[in-house]
Write a structure and sequence with these properties.
Length: 679
Amino acid sequence: MSAATDSPTRIRQLPPLVVNQIAAGEVVDRPASVVKELIDNALDAKARRITVELEQGGIELVRITDDGTGIGVDDLPLAIAPHATSKIRSAEDLDHIATMGFRGEALASIASVSRLSLRSRTAADAGAHQIDIEGDTAGPVKPAAGPVGTSVSVRNLFFNTPARRKFLRTPSTEQGHCVDMALDLAMSHPAIGFSVLCDGRRALEVPPDQSPRERVLALLGNELADEMLEVHADRFDDARGVALWGLVGLPSIARATAKSQHVYLNGRPIRDKTIQHALREAYRGLIEPGRYPTAVLMIEMDPRSVDVNVHPAKSEVRFRDQSMVHSLVLRTVKDALRAADLTPAVHAFGRHGNGAPSAPGAGSFLPGPGAASPAGFDAANSARAFADFFKRQAPTAAETRGERLNYDAVREALAPINTEIEGKPGVPSDPSGNGGLPQPPDEILPVRDAGETPLVARPPLRDDPASGGVAALAQGGTVSELSPTPRPASRLLQVHNSYIVTQDESGLLIVDQHALHERAMFEYLLLRLGEGALESQRLLMPAVVRLEPRQVTRVDDLAPLLKRLGISVEPISATDVGVHAFPSFLFERGVDPGEFLHDLLERADADGFAPASEAAVHEVLDMMACKAAIKAGDRLSDLEIADLLKLREHVERSSNCPHGRPTSIRLTIQELEKRFGRS
């Protein structure tokens, strides 16, 4: 019997202290965890003010004091007992948890790995009472001095578990985590005042009774007020309704980490992949890869529609209708971004942010599928803006040497639009095939250097009065009579054949011509792809591309995607493939089919995208748009500049190129006055 008793394989009942220490390992891993659990209790006690005191980053002392309802003297011993709580009574209560804490294990777990002192007083008590516990030894309840509310002091964290204590970081690092945790909870409870003292120094102070916007900006920095967009929506299609409010940052203040994203569910800070994905999708193409938008989102929903009991730290949740939450966040944030002017402003000290609102129309976008059109938006005019600009980019047959982009395929795709335009009064039909849009006379285009290839085809002037040619001007006509196409505004300047400078009512606008045209190309190709495969050109001789054997296999995997994009590739050998067809506009732009395929395969390997995924389509269209767009160094005519700038008003997300870099920046009048010492 004794041998069996001494057997190492015997099952034993663990002592209560060990049980609590195991629980503490799940709930309490550092001082910040203590801060979170104790603040949760203070919030559940309906506190109006909460004070956090830290010594040595919380390693030596964490003290949380609140002015909540307090704990009765008879309940103090139970408060530190494991799985004792006033917040739930039965298993059914787990289906609709409305409190921050609910498991009844926080105080017991913390007490098992520290020296804990609990002092509390209710409004009905004549005075406060205190109980102390160290490890598994609890002292008696004794009278103490203190106001209504509760104060919990946690000293010498992990004093009896040295293996856990040695994994703690430096006091400054642990202090940072504690302050971040307090800030996170303070942000979602604007009606409650918070104070954080670190070794006697005040690290955080916010008053009670603030609005959500005031609280968020007070904690993130009021200097971000002009760079945060307010979002709000609600959905009550059924009993599981959900409401959303928040502030999201302009693309210009995106950060290198996701620490600037704060998501709350019923006041609880959470980390949820569904919401994070919705945010990424909302900012797709507006921020560079590897950067994260700044966002504060507060979601309120019926507790029965979410399970918060899936993670010991209560930071992860499970939604009953995950797709509904995803679509609500995605739609709400996208709509806010679509309605805003996202052009970053240059500030006197180098910071980029949102400037004053631009002139009406600037920053308006083509609505995405299912989105409501902005006020004053005309989809037909937007389509014509595409058509008009693409036609002006079309070279003559003599110019198709790869130097400029041919948009014959685009004109064919826009044939219904062209037909509609030709039928309108005052617009003459044009058998030349340019879609009925009148071409400007040669005089209004800037003279290029000798031997320089023009970007736009220049039709000869017609010398008959009826056509409004040179004879009309000689007979006393005006320049405007030469052509229905008006002369562009004179306040346009191309700098170093790369940047376009213009003005609006807010100040100076500087546009990256390549980035803006790349965005326009990307959005057009995305829309065009929705109608079917892109037009391609059969090559007389296939372009042979030498690849690694694994890449040849990868070509087979990508075949459906390549077919949609107008690219036909067939294997020739174990290491060679032949490109038999290539998108017409890329070929005529002079893009080498072999180099393009090689770059595409390298990107596919690096990013690991699935051929059928939307991300893969976006990646390849991004490549196409980048290679087809106007380049830095391309000299543009006044008309081309004017038409390119029009696209800012008609292209979705025109503020940023598909890589997320800005297409334009603004130097406001206020900043100009600062720099010239006038203010």
